[in-house]
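Collaborator request, handled under Task 6.
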Amino acid sequence: MSISYNKLWHLIIDRKMKKKDLLELANLTPHTMLCLRHNQSIQVETLAKICIALGCKLDDIIEYSPN
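Structure tokens returned to the collaborator:
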């Protein structure tokens, strides 16, 4: 299984935000940001926090492709 958060990074760039802004806006931990940067799995609750903070849907920030 392959998870990619490239859509999230593009969304942040389009909104002229920095990763630090996302960390503060969604109240994320540095460890969670590390996981996101390395396309690792994170909890669905955390993904929901990001979506709420950015006002978007889950499929706006994550791509999943089965291997």
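The cover message to the collaborator said: "The CA atoms of residues 10 and 58 lie 14 Å apart. The first strand starts at residue 2 and ends at 4. Please let us know whether this matches your experimental observations."
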